[in-house]
Amino acid sequence: MRISTFFYTFGQGIKNIWRNKIFSLAPVATIAACVFLFGMFYAIVLNFSNIVRQAQSGVAVTVFFDEGISDEKIQEIGTEISKRAEVSKIVFVSAEEAWESFKQEHLGDYVDSFGDDNPLAEDSNYEIYMNDISMQENLVTYLEGIDGVRTVRKSAIVANMLTSVNSLIGVVSLGIILILLAVSIFLISNTVALGITVRREEIGIMKLIGATDFVVRAPFVIEGMLLGLVGASLPLVAIYIIYQRTVIYLADRFKVLDSLLQFLSIHQIFSTLVPVALILGVGIGFLGSFTTARKHLRV
Amino acid sequence: MVVSLLNLLRRCVIIGTIQLAGKGFREPAKKEQRGISIMIILEDVSKSYSTGSPALNNISLHVEKGEFVFIVGDSGSGKSTLIKLLLRELTPTSGKIIVNHTDVGKLRHNKIPKYRRGLGVVFQDFRLLKDRNVYENVAFAQRILAVPVRQIRKNVPSVLSLVGLAEKYKSRPRELSGGEQQRVALARAIINKPPILLADEPTGNLDPKNSWEIMKLLEQINKNGTTVLVVTHNREIVNAMQKRVITMKKGIIVSDQKKGGYIDED
After folding, report:
1. Dist CA B247 CA B256 (whole Å)
2. What confidence tens digit (pLDDT) does each residue in A28-46 have?
């Protein structure tokens, strides 16, 4: 295709939008709504995943050993566990460290009554941190089968809840986005079909003087893609402003939860969101307009 | 008595010309051998729509390169169907149509645009792109051929000068008279220098003065070597121009005169 032909076709696409400007608003608004919700859900899911990851990094499985087990055997078990794919970090807590920690957390002024005794003398353990909390069940089954392991303690409720909430947000947002995608494609398709109906006579003339299907269709496809591009760009601007203000507000409002609520920066969100949203918008526009132009322009 | 004799004589002439036309279509091969190029060949072409009698019934004709042919006949005689078949808007129910060595009936959908670019077309209702000015309307025919912009800028003013509209290149169709609009359509039809020009009632919406101007332009285009086929009802023009006249009635060719006039039907 010649460059001049490309620019001519592009210009015709813009003219199509201008001619049908009122009708073009509907698909732009729907795509904007779709991309806006997509962006917001994406930001929420990404932040939630981040929070879950932080929480998960604090959730550990604890492994206690049989009484009288040798230090060599404990070390051997530790080496085996650290080789597992689920494991991100393994920390050995000696009986003394366990007792010190317990004293500080729970005994306070009563600590002296225990003298030099260590009630947790047989409670040296491994704290095992995981890459993904959903793998906890597998890991626990494995740990329980190791010779020399007395007990395995896990925090199943927290792990399951975090995983479930994350999945739920993902599924709900995917459902809403899919519905909006379908509506957007339908509206783009309607706008292009309307444009074709309005210009049917003109299209007939073009065909009679030898215009190819491509020459006739291309402006409509470009129209659809431009509508998609505009529809995707507007909500990105909105998300940029809203996200930053929300993060500042939440950080300010919930200072107490500062250690838990670690929000991602807008740049971390936008590095993926911008290309995905633009491809989504242009893709919806292309799909809606191409299929409609193909269907209606077989003159 | 005299009138009856005259009518009988005329019927004989018509039957004679039909027979001649019938023989004529088998002659293209001989004519091509003699160095005469045939631009349009119709062999036993019929076209039936889903209801009613056939619009074209087994017609055959040939048009030589550089000919100027009028096709006349009443409404419903099959003239428009013939033009639509030549434009490949319709396909024949039976028979063969060959235009400029292309078998039109066998054209695949994706080959139709290229075929149509070899035909200049002018319609009674001008069929200009209303949202574009004169220049853009004419240039469009070149844009679809991907002619370089620089070349288009040269060609369009030149062809607009030929039809006498050089100064109105910025005007929109609605700002022009009927005659001017038809001249724009004519400019668009000839800018790609097609070997064949089809004109479907080109003077149908024009006053006598403009009609003559258009016909003179068509004659000039024909003199430059383009084969011209004009469907018309304009008796005065047909009689005055003394070109080949093919008369159609109820889907058949009833007369084919080499230098003829408009035949009244009764």
Report:
1. 6
2. 888 888 888 888 888 887 8
Q: Is there a single domain that holds both residue A50 and residue A79?
A: no
Q: Are residues A180 and A268 in the same domain?
A: yes
Query: Cα(B123)–Cα(B231) distance, rounded to whole angstroms?
Result: 10
Whether the Cβ atoms of residue A43 and residue A250 lie closer than 8 Å to each other? no
Instruction: Locate B211 and state its tokens.
Output: 């009609």
pTM: 0.66
The nearest CA of chain A is from the CA of B97 a distance in Å of: 18
**Residue that is written with structure tokens 């396909």 in the block:** B91
Q: Are residues A25 and A69 in the same domain?
A: no
**B143 and A5: CB-CB below 8 Å?**
yes
Given a contact cutoff of 8 angstroms between Cβ atoms, the answer to whether A263 and A250 are in contact is yes
Between the alpha carbon of residue A68 and those of residues A74, A96, A145, A148, A291, the distances in Å are: 11, 15, 18, 10, 74
Greatest distance between any 2 Cα atoms in chain A: 104
Radius of gyration of chain B (CA): 19
Q: In whole angstroms, what is the distance from residue B73 CA to residue B75 CA? A: 7
By the 10 Å C-beta count (0-12 exposed, 13-18 middle, 19+ buried), A29 is classed as middle
Distance between CA B36 and CA B28 in Å, rounded? 8
End-to-end CA gap in chain A: 23
A15 contacts B146? CB cut-off 8 A: no
* Residues contacting A151, CB < 8 A, separation 6+: A63, A64
Total of domains in chain A: 2
d(Cα A157, Cα A160) in Å, to the nearest integer?
Answer: 5
Find residues 149-168 of chain B whose CB sits inside 8 Å of chain A. Answer: 149
CB contact, 8 Å: B116 with chain A?
A: yes
Q: Residues B46-71: pLDDT tens digits?
A: 999 877 678 899 999 999 999 999 99
Domain holding A41, by residue range, is: 3-55+160-296
- Report ipTM (2 d.p.): 0.75
